[in-house]
Amino acid sequence: MSESLARTPEQPSADGEVSSARFWNAAQGGKDNYERDRAAVEAVEKIAPGITADARSARQFLRRTVRWAAAEAGVAQYLDLGAGLPLEPDIHQIVRRYRPDARVLYVDNDPVVLAHQSAYQDPPLSSYIDADMRDTDVIMNHVADRFDLTEPVMLTFSSVLGHFSDEEAHGVVGRLLAHLAPGSCLMLSHDIPTPSIIAACEVYSSAPGALPYQPRTIEQLLRFFEGMDIVDPGLVPLFEWRPDEETEITEIMGYGAIGRIRA
Q: How many domains does the chain have?
């Protein structure tokens, strides 16, 4: 599930409401959250067992794919869509180990995330923009100022596309990919409709002001990579993508893959 889901029915809705960004920071083991956020995580875990492990697995997958892109694929430019709250090591902290010339641009429009943007600001390596990921023209204007679009770029969508309809999600991905050079990568992680995920989605959909999350089947996820080469081992459960010593084996809820634009 995404780091930017709306509050659950168990979460307060007045001045002390639980922030969705802080909620997922707590679920992933971060420190930028309050006791009420951690209590909400526990409440959702009771309704949908395995959600917190799924959240951690998505973050681990992001880190492994970024490390692969920097260390093995030689990608030096990264565009992170729906960044959420910082949770070290973040993308710029990983890629600097392999590509001192790297450039990273984080995108989010959550006010809570904006308040923490300084953690993403490490000039000239990384920067943050407050923008809706659907505003691809705005995003690409910033990208063109920071990146060399004749060189590969990695797009990262870490469990965020479920917040959008098929038309919106494919539109965002397609419009961004259209600007990128051969060798560029699309990293996508996404939850599939397991019983626990369906239960969690029902909780969020019933909450006041909820931002619904749409799980997608494996066949639906493969459509995002049409016309691209999918990097081995393909579209697989998150923990099966090139696991390392930090990879948790979890219940299968999320799938992920990297696609590359053909030369």
A: 1
pLDDT tens digits for range 190-214 = 999 998 888 877 776 665 444 678 8
Asked whether 190 and 141 are in contact (CB, 8 A), the reply is: no
Does 147 fall in a domain?
yes
Helix/strand/coil for 161: helix
pTM summary value? 0.89
What is the percent of the chain where pLDDT is above 70? Answer: 89
Structure tokens at 188: 């996508």
Q: Cα(54)–Cα(56) distance, rounded to whole angstroms?
A: 5
Tell me the DSSP string of 122-142.
Answer: BTTTEEEEE--TT-HHHHHHH
Look up the domain containing 70 and give its range.
49-261
CATH number at residue 78: 3.40.50.150
Task: Spell out the long-range contacts of 50-53 with Cβ–Cβ below 8 A and sequence spacing 24 or more.
Answer: 50/196, 50/250, 50/251, 50/253, 51/1, 51/27, 51/196, 51/200, 51/253, 52/27, 52/28, 53/248, 53/250, 53/251
Residue labelled with tokens 């409440």: 43
